[in-house]
Every structure is written in C-alpha cells, then in structure tokens.
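Subject: sequence -> structure tokens, single chain

Hey, anyone have a minute? Need the predicted structure for the following. Not urgent.
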Amino acid sequence: MVLQERIDLLAKLKSFILEDNQELDDIAHRAYAQNAWFTVENIKGSLQSIASAFLDQDLLTAWAESYKVQDQNKRVGLVLAGNIPMVGFHDILSVFVSGNISLIKLSEKDNVLIPYLIKKLASWSADSSSYFEIVDRLTGMDAVIATGSNNTARYFEQYFGKYPNIIRKNRNGIAILNGKETEDDLQLLAEDVFKYFGLGCRNVSKLYVPAGYDTDIIMKAFETQGPINDHNKYGNNYDYTLALWLLNKVVFKQNNCFLLQEHTLIPSRIATVNFEYYEDIDTLSQHLLADRKEEIQCIVSQSPIDGFKSFYFGDAQKPSLMDYADGVDTMEFLVSL
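Reply:
Had a minute. Here:
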C-alpha cells in the first residue's frame, strides 16, 4: 500500500467509528466484560477521540508530509500498555503511516478493541493485514517501542537495549492553578482528573495551588463526579484508601468521589489526588523543569509553563497527532530507521 492508500483507509475507519452502529456497541460490551475498568462509556469516548484527533484525512496528510514519509518496511515491536482503552493506538497508527510493520504485544487488559480495529481495516483492504502482526512474544524486529512501569522499563532496557528503541516509564499529568479559575474551569479540570478513572498517564494526579489557596473550592467543584464511586472497582479503591488513611492518621480531605492529600509525590493512588502549595510560579516552573520533568506527561494550566507544553482545563485527554508520549517524537524515530 502506498501512503495515500493507508491514509484513505484510516479516514474510512474514522467514518465508521463516528457512525451510530450496533457493531461498535457490541465490541464495547465485549471489552467491558473482559476488563471492568473499560466501561462502555469510556470506550466510546476513547473511540471518538481517536476518530477526531488521529483519523482526520487532512490532519493525517499534513502529519505525514511534515516527516517526508517514505515506506520503511521495518518490523517494529510494540509492547502496549492497557491502562485505558486503546492507549497504544497512536503507536500502531504511527508505524502504519510511516510504512513500517507492527509486531504487537497486546496488554492482557486491552486485548479486544485493538484486534477488532485491525480486523476492520483488513475487511476493507486485505493488503493492510500485512502491516499488523499480533504476537505473544517479540522476535525478529528491527526496532522496539515499549510502554510500561518504571519497574518493567528496567527489563525492557535489558531485553531490547540492542535495538533502536523508545522505552517509556511512569508519568502523570499535573495541574497548576493560579487561584483565578472559574467554576467552569474547575469542572473541566475534574474531567482531567477523573476521566478513565484517573488511570491514564495524562490524567492529573497532582495539583499545584498558590500559597493560602482554599482547597475546599476544589472539593466542592469535584463533587459533581460523585457517580464515579458507583463503579465497583473504583469504589473499592476509595473505601480501601479511606480506611487505610484513617488507621494511619493521615491528614486528608474527602468528598463523595475522591480523597485529597497534601504530598510532594506526583503519582497518586486510585481515587486520590495529591496537592502542594507554591509561592511563585516562576520558581515552581524552574523546579519542575530541573527536578520533575521525567515524571510529568502533561501540564494543565490557564497559562503556558516554561519548558512544557500546556493544555487548557479539560484537554489533558485530547492529545493531537503531534502530542507524543513522554515528549519523544515517535514518527521521527520511525522514519529514521
């Protein structure tokens, strides 16, 4: 397949996703039955985001042209994460558009949706099937892109160090407030925190607030997310952490959907958010850039933050084609193989 054929096929996938059809409903329910964290609502939301941000024909064409894509025909091993629905789709898309072949090691948490989308592409174009191989073990590849935790990254570096590689570790989103946010801003921020139950690397797990900020404002604004606690797995995590913190006399605030704790850590437990006060935004920016950059996936803020790409409230889970995980340009890596 030439580049234009690949782009046309992806544009067809966009049209299919945006249709109101029973087939996608059925596959969403199958995926939910396999992994209860993948609610039908979240799966459909992820599909809509993929269709709008990643599969638009004009955007794909401009993206490919900016890299002067030529068919590489290299075999690229992909170790995919499974924390949110189809989180590895951008890597698969990048390999396909760059003219390379994906050897896909699926996460056991997300082994329904991606195979379905690949089969859907093959049903429209048999030639596309040669670009995707779902494998149990990676062998015979020319390069590797592996996503995992800080612990698994050590093993990835050991196993895949001899190949050209991108190895991703734990990162999280943070939000920097200035105290001038409106109620609407905070409602949008709640989406950045709670969408996909906070399991995504782009979810906000840590809030930086100005000295003297009244965190009760956040507690009240986030109460609208209360129904999230009706989800069995999320609710169990909330109850467990609440009991643990009470037993250990941890200082925290709670409402009907999460627990808020003052802490220097950026990662937070499910159903919890950390926060920290800051005195000066410039000093904070310098600290984050010098000492915490490798922990941060994205920043949500009203204003730009030096050294980082910032997203407005509500946009953390809406990356574009050019918003690469960990800030590493996947397409540049692929076209340079």
